[in-house]
């Protein structure tokens, strides 16, 4: 291989040295250029990597100067994982953005039973009710403790509605509050491309408990 390497990364063109690409011998990126290159070439003979080219410049800058990016951190982290550049992965995981997501938020959500499954259930219910409507809603029950879960079930039994359409989150054993979980739900559903908002659900007369203690209405806006 020539010591000067031309790359086409997802349509973005880069020129660098072979030694830069092989700086971390155990990485997937280094393996691509070890021995017989395991890459296709484009019409101009440049090695082609089918990844987002926009963020490769940050990978390359790190390999050249050990500069850890402060922009597009989440996206660069995904690319560092793909190229398996272990020192960059570890340094990015110490950044506030990745640390907060992986160590704080994700660890909290891992303690909320069936969190991901409940998000998908919310979306399925909202889509089913969206026929010929601009907005559709999903009732969510959020309980922090086992005691609240029992009280919520009593409250749910007095609701004049299809109980299968109520999505229940909790209880959990972690510091974040109900409002923190509600923010997480909104954040993660919006990350899937949906436009949503929520408010305390005000139930009918004769409801045994204050509805905002447990129940929230999430609105999906479709157009």
UniProtKB/TrEMBL annotation:
BP GO terms, sorted: protein homooligomerization
InterPro entries: BTB/POZ_dom, KCTD7/14_C, SKP1/BTB/POZ_sf, T1-type_BTB
Gene3D superfamilies: Potassium Channel Kv1.1, Chain A
Location of the BTB domain: 3-100
Coiled coil location: none
Source domain of life: Eukaryota
Protein name: BTB/POZ domain-containing protein KCTD14
Species of origin: Dryobates pubescens
